[in-house]
Design goal:
about 35% strand, six-stranded antiparallel β-sheet, five-stranded antiparallel β-sheet, Methylamine Dehydrogenase, Chain H, mainly beta, 31 strands
């Protein structure tokens, strides 16, 4: 029996949703801009990890520029080694900047995140194949950051393997990390799998304490495999603030963590998290950290997670380190396991206080109000073939383990203001649309 999947816009309450365009790369490796009715308004034939429409304030006022990955490297290891060239395209597809051939090793190896900085440089999260002394003689996928000038010169560099003693690993954690690297030094996703890197930008913590750690140029990073969110001091390279890898409730049950609703409360065990970032000035919750807490298996040693698999979105006060808001499926009146992505995904705060959530493993993008009401929902109809859910076709590295599968995966979506692209605001329906009961545009997997 074929499985029919409902795709496209399944629910839209225009009176409660924040109206914008939404950008994402489908599992078919095409980047699309849609409106809230699900209509594709523009597309580029490239994948982005992540794709991002750039604020015109950073492009000299030009509308609709997008950042994507432009070519593969041909590295047979795949994963975070695979990207050859990263670049910036105009609305019409003209290449205005690209970087890769001049990178160390002849490939950008950009993965998981990037940012165009106010000074015109780009912050790139990259893979650095090298032996890390603290982990033994194996050449591994270390992760690092490059700040690249417009002419391609690397003007600042940071490598995670030089700072492992600042990550807070226990003795058992160090043993688990070293054993993992020794067992699989060619892991195509790296031993830490850093999955985000974002400068803090202007923020209320810095205004209150100009000498403190929350300097606008400091960089917030996330290690999915180590359950760590950390802040890099741009001036020294040191880690000056950190969440994880371990939490006081490590012996507690996942069910209690996922479904706890009282806030504020101390942050408990995050696991496999994605895209922690400081909510920008001018948005509700400005200065707090928003993070998609996957609750997927991760950690050195592995975090105890229990059997009630469910993800959550957390808003965290970085000074008190308390959860001040969260979203789980139970906030929408559903069992916790109905909202779950063990990897990929992200969350973005919107101007009206809603949050745009990418439940990436399912290809689902939705808007939720502060009280947990889903007011817009879209399921990507764009399928692809990949290894272990990752939308990049290459031969399995371990035959019989990583097999090619069909996936609707969306890594990260972006709400794009109308004024950032040369389209203007679309006309939207004036009544709520609920299509969940029908199989309109359903795809057979």
């Amino acid at each position: 029996m074929a499985f029919v999947r409902l795709t496209g816009v399944t629910y839209f309450d225009p009176d409660s949703a924040h109206d914008s365009y939404v950008l994402f790369t489908g599992a078919d490796s095409v980047t699309r801009l849609i409106d809230l009715t699900g209509e594709v308004r523009h597309e580029w034939p490239f994948a982005g990890v992540p794709p991002r429409v750039i604020d015109p304030a950073l492009t000299g006022g030009r509308l609709g520029d997008v950042g994507v990955q432009l070519s593969p490297s041909g590295d047979p290891r795949g994963g975070i080694y695979a990207n050859g060239t990263v670049g910036q395209l105009t609305w019409s597809g003209e290449r205005v900047w690209e970087w890769g051939e001049q990178a160390p090793g002849g490939a950008a190896r950009q993965n998981h995140d990037w940012e165009l900085l106010p000074n015109g440089n780009r912050l790139l999260l990259v893979t650095v194949p090298r032996a890390v002394p603290a982990l033994g003689p194996h050449v591994v996928g270390d992760q690092g950051l490059y700040e690249v000038a417009p002419d391609g010169e690397i003007v600042w560099e940071w490598r995670a393997g030089d700072h492992l003693d600042e990550f807070g690993f226990s003795e058992a954690g160090w043993k688990a990390l070293r054993d993992t690297v020794a067992r699989d030094p060619d892991d195509p996703w790296g031993y830490l799998e850093l999955n985000s890197a974002k400068t803090l930008g202007p923020n209320r913590w810095h205004r209150a304490d100009p000498e403190g750690v929350f300097q606008p140029d400091n960089i917030l990073i996330s290690s999915r495999k180590a359950n760590i969110v950390a802040l890099i001091d741009k001036a020294t390279g040191s880690i000056v603030w950190r969440l994880g890898p371990y939490f006081a409730d490590a012996a507690g049950s996942q069910h209690q963590r996922i479904n706890a609703h009282k806030v504020p409360r101390p942050l408990d065990q995050i696991s496999g998290q994605h895209n922690p970032h400081l909510i920008a000035d001018g948005l509700p919750g400005a200065g707090n950290i928003l993070v998609f807490d996957n609750q997927g298996g991760a950690g050195y040693p592995p975090a105890p997670l229990g059997i009630y698999a469910g993800s959550r979105v957390l808003e965290i006060d970085p000074v008190t380190e308390q959860i001040v808001w969260q979203y789980t499926a139970e906030d929408s009146g559903l069992p916790s396991w109905t909202f779950f992505s063990s990897f990929v995904s992200n969350a973005q705060r919107l101007p009206n206080g809603n949050t745009l959530v990418t439940e990436g493993m399912q290809g689902r993008i939705f808007q939720v109000t502060p009280d947990g009401r889903v007011v817009w929902e879209y399921v990507s109809p764009y399928l692809g073939r990949g290894v272990a859910g990752e939308p990049e076709v290459h031969e399995p590295r371990v035959p019989g383990v990583d097999r090619l599968t069909t996936t609707p995966l969306v890594y990260r979506a972006q709400a794009v203001p109308f004024e950032w692209v040369p389209l203007g605001a679309p006309r939207s329906p004036h009544t709520a649309v609920d299509l969940r009961a029908s199989a309109r545009e359903g795809r057979t997997l």
